[in-house]
Amino acid sequence: MAQIEYKDLLDAGVHFGHLTRKWDPRMAPYIFMEKNGIHIIDLNKTLSCVESAEAALKQIVRSGRKIMFVATKKQAQEIVTEEAKRLKMPYVTDRWLGGMLTNFGTIRKSLKKMQTLEKMLKDETTVSNIAKRERLMLTREKDKLERVLGGVADLTRLPAALFIVDVKREHIAVAEAKRLNIPIFAICDTNSNPELVDFPIPSNDDAYKAISLITLAIGKAIEEGLMERKQDKDDQRLVEEEEAKRQVDKGGEEAAAAPRAEVPAIESDEE
């Protein structure tokens, strides 16, 4: 499992919270002190929370389920998109569409429409028969759908959990996940409500370095879970192959041990 050290958190500025006047009192257990009008996050609590989140995520991924990454704020989009793509996990980094979880059936219809448009615009024969103005409109519609839904194009069922950067900003995603009892793992700054989250990770959610450090640690845990799943499948396949071989060997032994019927002698016609 990825090992983040206290110094790593310090160097990335994970400990810098918001102005004290903007705090959410429910973050009090994760705050170390106040300095120059800013709340300082307790990094020992952060380390403990990261460890708990990593362990839980590994188990979810090991079972073959998906984690959806959600981060629409500018400084988080690039790193979250890259990590989600690397892990082949669904992600939302442009805009959260209301109902993305609670109205998943409609989202699936939009995805099918996007795929149909993509296929249509790749077909030279079809494109040549469409007026230039209409073709432009269809291309814009496809691009818009890809921008918003491209990260969930391969999602065939609801994700098993969400990893969110900035609970306050992604409040709609949080509300939908809670309504469906989908576990939430999230970076929570001092202005957030950690009680909305199953696995809060107290951290600066504005600085790129802080977001990157936490996201990469989460990504590493997911990667390890994927590797363990692959190992589990390989082990299971070996067990099945050994069992099949044992059955074949057993069948051969039983056939060899079976008594043979005596063949009656054939009388010769020759005298």
From TrEMBL:
Q: Which family does it belong to?
A: Belongs to the universal ribosomal protein uS2 family.
Give the organism the record lists: Dyadobacter koreensis
Q: Which UniProt keywords apply?
A: Ribonucleoprotein, Ribosomal protein
Q: Does the keyword Cytoplasm apply?
A: no
Q: What is this protein called?
A: Small ribosomal subunit protein uS2
Biased composition of type Low complexity is found at 254-271
**One GO-annotated biological process of the protein:** translation
| Top-level taxonomic group | Bacteria
Which PANTHER family does the entry mention? 30S RIBOSOMAL PROTEIN S2 PROKARYOTIC AND ORGANELLAR, SMALL RIBOSOMAL SUBUNIT PROTEIN US2M
Span of the signal peptide? none
Q: Name one GO molecular function term.
A: structural constituent of ribosome
Q: Which gene encodes it?
A: rpsB
Provide ranges: composition bias, Basic and acidic residues. Answer: 229-253
